[in-house]
Structure formats: structure tokens, C-alpha cells
Write a structure and sequence with these properties.
With about 120 residues, this protein is an alpha+beta fold. The chain folds into 2 domains: about 30 residues, no CATH class; about 80 residues. It is built from 2 helices and 4 strands.
């Protein structure tokens, strides 16, 4: 009986450990305060842009638009990533540039056309 409890505890601890490792950074959701690399944030921004197109919040023409600029800025509470995409094919010129904001660690905050 003692061996059975030990084995069950060991197996349970292995399964919990692998879940914790798999959750870190998966799906562009990050934990901790370590700054994300620009390449990771750009990848997450492209995924977020595709999601906005799929949900109908952005026109399909945005799918082919590449990143114009990525920079770290002073946000409302702390440093943030600000990424911009420019789509010259958009009829409404006030919506020609899409801005996306991410925490310094890489989590999506918001997207807008004002850049603020």
C-alpha cells in the first residue's frame, strides 16, 4: 500500500510539472516580468492581427500587411511594446495605421488606430 501511494504521488507530480512547463509562454500569454524579445512580440502581434481579421474586426487586407515599426514606449503604468502596421489599401485614411500594444513581457493589451 505504501508503494502504491508513493507511485501515485510521483506520477501526479510528473503530470503537474509538465503542465506548468507547457503553459509558460504558450499562446502568446506570458508570466513573470522578464522583457520579451522583439521577435516574440512581433510574432504575437501577427497572430493577434490574424485573430482580429477572423473575428471581422479588421478587413482581410490586413493579413498581408507586415510590421512597420516596433518600439518600447512609456505606457500608462510601465514600459510597453508599441507595434505599428500600415495598410495603404484601406479606404478610410484615418484607419491606415494599426497600432498594437503589448506589455513588456509580451502580453496583448489593446489595438487601435490612434496610437495612444
Amino acid at each position: 500500500m505504501k508503494n502504491l501511494i508513493s507511485t501515485a504521488t510521483f506520477v501526479a507530480s510528473l503530470s503537474l510539472t509538465s503542465l506548468a512547463i507547457a503553459a509558460e509562454g504558450s499562446g502568446c500569454h506570458f508570466h513573470g516580468n522578464s522583457p520579451a524579445k522583439e521577435t516574440i512580440v512581433v510574432d504575437c502581434a501577427n497572430k493577434q492581427k490574424a485573430t482580429l481579421v477572423t473575428k471581422g474586426k479588421l478587413d482581410a487586407s490586413w493579413n498581408s500587411i507586415a510590421l512597420e515599426k516596433a518600439e518600447k514606449i512609456d505606457g500608462k503604468e510601465s514600459k510597453e511594446w508599441k507595434l505599428s502596421f500600415k495598410n495603404p489599401a484601406v479606404a478610410d485614411k484615418s484607419k491606415e495605421t494599426l497600432y498594437m500594444f503589448f506589455t513588456l513581457s509580451g502580453n496583448f493589451i489593446a489595438a487601435n488606430y490612434s496610437g495612444k
